[in-house]
Specification:
The protein has about 450 residues and is of the alpha/beta class. The protein is about 35% helix and about 20% strand. It has helices at about 90-100, 105-120, 140-150, 180-195, 215-230, 240-250, 255-260, 280-290, 295-300, 310-315, 335-350, 355-370, 405-410, 440-455; strands at about 10-15, 25-35, 35-45, 55, 60-65, 65-70, 125-130, 155-160, 205-210, 235-240, 270-275, 290-295, 320, 390-395, 415-420, 425-430, 430-435. The strands form 2 sheets. Strands 1, 2, 3, 4, 5, 14, 15, 16 and 17 form a 9-stranded mixed beta sheet that branches. Strands 6-7-8-9-10-11-12-13 form an 8-stranded parallel beta sheet. The radius of gyration is 21 Å and the shape is globular.
Length: about 450
């Protein structure tokens, strides 16, 4: 397909993996961009556009859709490295008192650091699950949204919540939970202030009560009713660990997924983080309703949570994307490592046919787009879709001799980015984030963590 007039940008001479429904790939191809959208692409050399078209030489590189991160806790970037050898519940009990001291300033710093790391590892769209709002901490959601705008990533923050403290049988301390009325009021404000339903949206809001062991059934039901009346998506943690299974059996006399069914939390507007411990009934129910999963293999390994049944989820037709999860349970937060780890974990339990390298890349791109309800806008390289693109350099010594560029990307060392574009805007060039001062961000992060830990 050839554009009829000069585009704003063309990336030329690179391998192209579109991740479209037909699996279109070019060993040497080009993609052109006009404004914030992909205009055209093709095999061979790009047309001879005029001098007004910016041109990137993609020789030695692979162009893919930008990666989509479907689960994160950005605030945790300033609490990395703690409780390194703990189970999930032990880890949470150690960190809740530290997290209780976060505020608007520290969250802005943490979110900026985490989003810079995501950008450097190919991420163009990130969700975030922010569920902890200490009293007097300021507008933490606004801090994250400002950080995403500064770094330049497409952002799907979810207004999380906890209302079940230790005194009522929950896991979190009472001083970090909120009342249902306060949660619903803040959720309504977040939707009205920030949610953009348009196809070009850079910010979309979701509602996300934290987990079965930190929220009440009433909060789950009322959050779902509010989200559906406002047309936004729903998110929560589910079936991450055996401890959670035991909690649900002891308190609700059912599995986590059966509990979600009771509460009306199945549907194509819902996605769960983790889903490690799902039985056949759960998978069938999720497939029937179009409920999605954010698979977080690195974090699951870090916390010893187990290995998700990813191949079974995909085979059932469940929307599955990838997530780095919070930086306190995945210190590298490198999104390009997630498809590799997803593939290795799937093969470790299911054999070499359990997941292909292209299947792993699809989880990181179109899979994530489906999970976030953005399959029409992002996730593949197709004319008319938003220009969210990652150009990976594969002519390094670490990748020399790997003939298949997708194999090099997924199974080889994590490659540097030659360029990253979000909404048609360049965010990374030659491995460096161009929108912020990375050194200054790193210094701010170190200071914020030292200040937070000094208050212990």
């Amino acid at each position: 397909m050839v554009a009829v007039s000069a585009p704003d940008l063309v990336v030329d001479g690179c391998a192209v993996v579109t991740v479209d429904a037909s699996g279109t790939e070019y060993r040497r191809g080009w993609v052109s961009v006009r404004g914030n959208r992909i205009e055209a692409l093709g095999e061979g050399r790009a047309p001879a556009f005029g001098a007004e078209t910016a041109r990137i030489d993609g020789r030695g590189c692979l162009l893919t859709p930008g990666l989509v991160n479907t689960h994160h806790h950005l605030y945790q970037w300033i609490t990395r490295g703690l409780a390194a050898d703990s189970t999930l519940f032990e880890w949470l009990k150690t960190l809740y008192p530290v997290w209780a001291r976060i505020d608007e300033k520290s969250v802005r710093v943490a979110a900026t650091g985490a989003l810079v790391s995501l950008a450097r590892t190919g991420c163009t769209t990130s969700a975030d699950h922010h569920y902890l709002f200490p009293h007097g901490g300021g507008d933490l959601l606004a801090a994250e949204i400002a950080a995403a705008a500064e770094v330049g990533l497409r952002f799907h923050p979810t207004r999380g919540s906890m209302d079940l403290g230790q005194s009522k049988g929950g896991l979190p301390p009472d001083d970090v939970v909120e009342s249902i009325d306060d949660i619903l009021a803040a959720s309504t404000t977040a939707i009205e202030q920030w949610h953009d339903p348009s196809p070009d949206a850079m910010v979309r809001i979701g509602l996300a009560p934290c987990s079965p062991f930190s929220v009440t059934a009433d909060l789950m039901r009322e959050s779902a009713a509010l989200a559906r009346s406002a047309g936004v998506r729903l998110h929560t943690h589910l079936a991450e660990t055996v401890d959670e299974l035991d909690f649900c059996r002891e308190n609700f006399d059912c599995t986590p997924t059966e509990y979600m069914e009771r509460l009306g939390w199945l549907g194509d507007d819902v996605w769960y983080a983790h889903g490690v411990h799902l039985d056949d009934h759960a998978i069938s129910a999720m497939a029937r309703t179009g409920t999605g999963i954010a698979h977080c293999p690195t974090s699951n390994g870090r916390l010893g949570a187990g290995i998700a049944r990813t191949a079974d989820l995909v085979a059932a037709g469940i929307p599955v994307g990838l997530g780095v999860d919070g930086a306190a349970s995945n210190e590298s937060s490198s999104l390009i490592e997630e498809p590799r780890n997803a593939l290795l974990y799937a093969r470790a339990v299911g054999g070499p046919q359990a997941m292909t390298v292209r299947g792993a890349l699809e989880l990181a791109t179109m899979g994530g787009a489906r999970v976030l309800g953005r399959a029409d806008d992002i996730g593949s390289i197709q004319p008319g879709k938003l220009a969210d693109l990652a150009l990976w350099r594969l002519d390094t010594p670490a990748h020399a001799g790997i003939e298949d560029p997708v194999v090099a990307l997924i199974l080889g060392s994590a490659p540097p980015l030659a360029a990253l574009f979000v909404n048609g805007r360049e965010v990374v060039r030659d491995g460096v984030v161009t929108t912020v001062d990375e050194a200054a961000v790193g210094a701010d992060v170190a200071q914020a963590q030292a200040t937070l830990l000094a208050g212990a």
